Amino acid sequence: MSSPESPLTPEVQADLRIAKRGCDELLVEAEFARKLARSRATGVPLRIKLGLDPTAPDIHLGHTVVLNKMRQLQDLGHTVIFLIGDFTSMIGDPSGRNVTRPPLTAEQIQENAKTYYAQASLVLDAARTEIRYNSEWSDPLGARGMIQLASRYTVARMMEREDFTRRYKGGIPISVHEFLYPLMQGYDSVALKADLELGGTDQKFNLLVGRELQKEYGQEPQCVLTMPLLEGTDGVDKMSKSKGNYIGISESPSSMFGKLMSISDTLMWRYYELLSFRSLDEIELLQKQIKEGRNPRDAKVMLAQEIVARFHTQKAAQDALADFEARFRDGAIPEDMPEVSLGAAPLGILKVLREAGLVASGSEAQRNVEQGGVRVDGDRIEDKALMLPAGTYVVQVGKRKFARVTLM
C-alpha cells in the first residue's frame, strides 16, 4: 500500500506536472502523487500499462497522443508495458458503439500486430519497454476461471456504461460476450499489477473496471489517466482516416511536413501540448516570444520538423523544409490568409476555387487549372475533375491568392 511517509518533494511535484500535461483526467490524483512519492523514495519504478487492440495495421498522429504520454513517463524512469490485446481483440471492444462489433480473427490480429509495435517504437524507447500479450493469462483462465472472474462484477455496474444503457433502452441487441471485454481488460491490470493505466477518454469505463478488479484481488488499485482525442488538421473533428483530416506516421516526410504547416496557428499549440516532446517551459517561452512579435510560422516549422524527424530522420525533416520552401518560393505563403469551411466533401477543385472566393466564375477556375496556376498544398493541379476529400488544404491561385480551405 502507499506509504504516507513518502514526501511530496519538489521532484515529485515536477513528475506529477509532467504526468498531467495535456491529460483529460487523472483518477485519483492524490493517490498517484503518493505512488510517485513512494517510487522516488524507494527507487522502485511504477508499472504503467497501455493496452491496444491491433484492430488496424497503421496508426496516425492521433493514436500517438497516448504513446507520447507513455514516453514521458518512461523518461521519468518508470516501467511501461505495451500490452497487445490479442485475446481481447477476438471479443471486440464495444466502446462508443451502437451495434455489436465483429471480432477479429486470429489471423487478422497476427497480421496487424506485426507492424503495430514497430510503429509504436518510433515513439517509445523499445529497449525500456515491456511487451506483453494478454493471451498469456487470458487463455489459461478457461471456462472455470472466466466464470469466477465474472462473479466479481455485477450486471448493474456494467449497465452504467453509457453505450450499453443507450443500446438497451433503444432495443438494440447487446451480446453477452461484450460484457466480457471490460472484464478481460480489467483482469489485464490484475495480471500485470499495474500502478497506472492510460487510455483515451472513450476508455474510461474499461480502465475503472481494472481498478475495481484489483481491489477484488487484494491489490492496490491502479490510477487511471485518460488522454483527449486529438483534433485533425481541420481543427474540428477528431483525427480520423475516414474524415481525411489525419496525418499518418508512415506518410512521406514531405506530406507530413506540408500537412502540419497547413494547420491553424491556434491548433498548433494543441499539437505542441499533445505531440511535442519539448518541455512545458520551452513551449511557454515560445508562446511568449510570439505574443511579443515573433513570426508564428517559426513555431510551426519547429513543430513540423520535430514530428517529421521523430518518424523519419533529422535529415528528412531538413529536406522536407527545403522542399516546402522551394515549392512556394515563387509566391511565398502569406502568414494570414482567408479561412473557409465548406461542406459536402468530397468537392471538385473547380467548385472549391469558386466557393473559396479565389475565382469569380467556373470558367475562370477552369482556365486557371488549364494554365497551371492552381496549387493545393504546393502541388500544381492539372486535373480539372479532381475531387478533394475532407481535410484542410492551402489552396493557391496565381502568385497572390491564397485560402486555407477546410472540407467537411
Name a few traits of the molecule.
single chain, 408 residues, alpha/beta, Rossmann fold, Tyrosyl-Transfer RNA Synthetase, Structural Genomics Hypothetical 15.5 Kd Protein In mrcA-pckA Intergenic Region, Chain A, 3 domains, 6-stranded mixed beta sheet, EC 6.1.1.1, ATP binding, aa-tRNA-synth_Ic, Tyr-tRNA-ligase
Description:
- The protein is an alpha/beta fold and 408 residues long.
- The protein has three domains: 10-227, 3-Layer(aba) Sandwich (Rossmann fold); 253-327, Tyrosyl-Transfer RNA Synthetase (Orthogonal Bundle), CATH 1.10.240; 339-407, Roll (Structural Genomics Hypothetical 15.5 Kd Protein In mrcA-pckA Intergenic Region, Chain A), CATH 3.10.290.
- 46% of the residues lie in helices and 14% in strands.
- It is built from 17 helices and 13 strands.
- The protein has helices spanning 10-20, 29-42, 61-75, 106-120, 135-138, 142-150, 155-158, 162-169, 176-192, 204-216, 253-262, 265-275, 280-291, 296-311, 314-327, 349-355, 362-370; strands spanning 25-27, 47-52, 79-84, 129-133, 196-200, 223-227, 339-342, 347-348, 374-376, 379-380, 387-388, 391-397, 401-407.
- The strands form three sheets. It has a six-stranded mixed beta sheet, with helices on both faces.
- The chain starts with 9 loop residues before the first helix and ends with a strand.
